[in-house]
Amino acid sequence: MPTPQIALSSLALPADGPHLRQPPRPVDLRGPNYAARFDATTLFYDVYRAGAHVVLQGPPFLNLQALLAQSAPLAGALAGWWPRARIRPRFKAGEIWWRNGPDHFTLSGPLGTHAIAVQPDGAALFAGRRVIHTLSKDNDIAWIIDWARFYQRHHGADAVLLYDNGSSAYDAAELEETLATACPQMLVRVVSWSFPYGPQGGLAAGIPGIEAPWDSDFCQTGSMQHARHRFLRHARSVLNADIDELVLGPAGQSIFAAAEASRAGFVKFAGRWISAARPDAAAHTPPRHGHFLWQDSEEAETCPPKWCLVPRPWAHRRCSWSVHNLFGARANRRISPAFTYRHFKGISTSWKYDRQESTPFTPARFTPDDTLAAALAAADLIPG
């Protein structure tokens, strides 16, 4: 019998209503697609239990925070010398933590009237497990299976928590069933997270010669904070890695074991690109991780760091999980020399930019990554 899909209690404001989230980015730094990609309407991604609290979690509340504070029953819970609810602004995220909140309530005030059912705490599901976590959209299912198998066989992962950002090639239930069947030794859960990803920052923002701030892409950070609080508080350890990223360590050492053994319970590591070039470019469609084993000696683009950690419940007030950082943690400053990840240009839908290699393969330019090849072979992931 199929496992019931994970439900979210999401709340979106009407796009034609009087109250919308106002963009934090200055007008002169907004690219041509900024307004279309900005999430102005999502108030809560989900409302759920986390231990003794009900958590109302969404993108940053920004101008909507004052209106939320005027809404019943939050207005009463936020008031007084010893309030039962507190608003906790985060980097690119908004949270209200309500101690001993009810299972159902009706939010009523300037933002309208909305009946909300509180979703159950999911922390017991992943308790004691080594979890790989990511956000994904329309990645080939074969890639996702290879990714999960690599971390199971090479690092000892025994659970996958994947947030699907509105894929059109399959739905969350189909992906969960297919992945669970392919990886029967792993706990697999897929959350349908169909919220706007948000505008890019940096040079990808679309303003020639100007690097815009990364201040408006709320979706991925929101998925990480949601995973952290609703599902992963009691996990043994958690690795943040995308489908096109495979972590390597010394002599096959587990990244989970390294985080668990570290004093800070946290390992942050750098990455390097694996080229989309290969000598047999026309031989495999679609290609797999194991078809890409070469580094480009002329590669100029860098890879920002990723991380693995042991969840610390007491750290939730001062630290925020983000794509490349654990904001608020001292250990965030240190990059481990022992681990690196390989970032595969060829494992991509090219949603951000075209990552396919146009330069013909030449041995003088593209050199084999023997460490990667050995790790993939050990995990039985070199296609025949």
User: What is the multimeric organization of the chains shown?
Assistant: single chain
Reading the helices and strands in chain order gives EHEEEHHEEEEEHEHEHEEHEEEEEEEH
Question: How are the strands of the largest sheet arranged?
Answer: 11-10-9-12-16-14-19-13
- Stretches with pLDDT under 50, minimum 5 residues: none
- What is the CA-based Rg, rounded? 22 Å
* Shape type: globular
Please state roughly what percent of the residues sit in beta strands, choosing from under 5%, 5-15%, 15-25%, 25-35%, 35-45% or over 45%: 25-35%
Largest sheet, if any? 8 strands, mixed
Secondary structure: number of strands: 20
User: Roughly how many Å apart are the termini?
Assistant: 34 Å
Helix content: 10-25%
Q: What's the overall average pLDDT, rounded?
A: 93
User: Helical stretch count?
Assistant: 8
Can you give a write-up of this model?
The protein has 384 residues and is α+β, with helices and mostly antiparallel strands. It has a domain at 11-117. It is 18% helix and 27% strand. The chain is built from eight helices and 20 strands. α4 links the parallel β9 (130-136) and β10 (159-164). α4 (141-155) packs across α5. It is globular and about 70 Å long.
